[in-house]
Specification:
The complex is a heterodimer of chains A (375) and B (253). Chain A has 375 residues and is α/β, with parallel strands linked by helices. Chain A has twelve helices and six strands. Chain A folds into two domains: 91 residues, 2-Layer Sandwich (Transcription Regulator spoIIAA), CATH 3.30.750; 237 residues, no CATH class. In chain A, strand 1 and strand 2 form a beta hairpin. In chain A, helix 7 runs antiparallel to helix 9 and helix 7 runs antiparallel to helix 12. With 253 residues, chain B is an alpha/beta fold. In chain B, 37% of the residues lie in helices and 25% in strands. Chain B contains nine helices and ten strands. A six-stranded mixed beta sheet of chain B has the order 6-7-8-3-9-10, sandwiched between helices. The longest helix of chain B has 18 residues. The chains are: A alpha/beta (375), B alpha/beta (253). At the A-B interface, helix 7 and helix 8 of A face helix 2 and helix 3 of B.
Chain lengths: 375, 253
Amino acid sequence: MNDDRVKLHSSNEGKLLVSLQGDWLLETGRPEPQSVCDKITADKCHIISFDTNQLENWDSCILTYLLAIKDYTQTLGITFDPNGLPDGIRELVDLARAVPPHKQDKEKEDRGSLLVRIGDDTLALFKSAHQLFAFVGEASFPLARFILRKSKFRASDLGLFLQETGAYAVPIVSLISFLVGVILAFVGIMQLELFGAQVYVADLVGIAMVRVMGAVMTGIIMAGRTGAAFAAQIGTMQVNEEIDALQTLAISPVEFLVLPRLISLILMMPLLTLFADLMGIVGGAVIASGFYDVNAIVYFNRVIEAVGLNDLFVGLFMGFVFGILIALCGCLRGLQCGRDASAVGDATTSAVVTSIVAIIIATALIIIMCAALGI
Amino acid sequence: MNRPDAVIEISDLTMAYGDFVVMKDLNFTINRGDIFIIMGGSGCGKSTLLKHLIGLKRPAKGIIKYGEQDFWNSDREQMETMMREFGILYQSGALWSSMTLSENVALPLQQYTSLNTKQIEELVALKLSLVGLAGFQSYYPSEISGGMRKRAGLARAIALDPTLLFFDEPSAGLDPVSAHRLDELILQLQNSLNATVVIVTHELASIFAIGSNSVFLDAETRTMLAMGNPRDMLESNNNKTIQNFLRRGEVAP
């Protein structure tokens, strides 16, 4: 492609004169240096010089052009004579090549074939589970010390977390549990209607909410809400070296940071679960009496008859277990956080995912256990 | 060399992150009353060395002795006893952001003394006033400037009247006047507390103003090049890297 801002003139002593004219600006674009390089090889030049008498405005695009030519001449061992170039261009070209490029090859991560990656990821999963178990142990000692009234954290921290994980969580937990109750009732009553057994929707919603759904929904909400918050708080402290500062004062971060969070969730989760159970039952009542002619009083009486103390204890126990899992996953990911901002994001995401996975596994185990024990 | 007034003795220290060796074969001694400078180009491992000294990173090889006690081979309790004598100022202050300045300075006092609340409050007021932050007790770290955060971090570092002070790049981010004031503060504190100070820095002004002993770490050879008083190094050490560093890249006369 011929651009009339470049004119090449080669003499028969192997000298190539490149005339650069007009405006060389980013807006106007530039020709490809390839034409000059081709001319150099074609005419077997051994020195290249420049004439810029008619050069007007220039910016970085002329520099990239010239640097491409300079690098090419370097590889061929040809002389690059910068004397015809304006001072500014000459200094910048020299500066750009003053420091030799960094030689060390950053090892490109070769992630291997699909099979290798599946293997690596599975191993990482096991390692992650192992870390969680190890952390359970690490947190149990301070917990035991707390029960024996010998641990070191600030009471004001505990108060703050009780408020944040308990009182402030009530609105969202109520809302979602209410919705779950509504959904359960809706879906259930559509089938029960076929048998004229609408009134048993109370049993369905009551037992489902109290035994399992209340705890699980609360657990998942709190994982996203509080597990993420814990991971972010502690992760940011990690980034700011605040945890280093605790360690060098010989204050255990697990005792100081994790313990108050763990205790607050242990106390609040069963209470929130109870609240969720109630809201779910009310949600079911709204649907049953509002849309399907089930008398509200009858509904609530059926709930009282159908839901047993066993169901309640199983549900509360699940809430308790989930509280522990959420606190531990959130805090663990926070403590494992790297030292930059994106690491905090990763820690938060991982905390939520790990908590939810742990909750689901725990649910399965508890259900199996209850079935085996006949509870 | 085992001098009776050696406070910290580093022998054959090698620091590594996994397979990557940061520094190797470090041998030097920090004496009582020294203002000891750890210096070198950027990325040579100065802050990593500091982490090894204060108990945040285990050496890959080598021994760090505090007095007669091998730091990293002691059990956890002995290490914590030794660490109680440290006062550490981190590069950005590392104040606990959810606590006020007063709570920050009070925490070490609450952990390690049995003083009552009023006595602790008085001590906190004292430490803050020593660093020129009297009256800022109820401010949060996010509400004060960077320079003030450093000074607050310093107040926390001296809360327990430590005999060993560690500063990680104390003048980073400070204007020349504040940096000079900080140097003077460091000298005053060292004098009054009879402390030994270890400073990681590359600020030449501070190095020459207050440094009495130093070690020079080289990023290219990954080991130490020299130790001694920085001013002596400037005059008599002919190593090109060191001269370049101490003269800020200007050609030696």
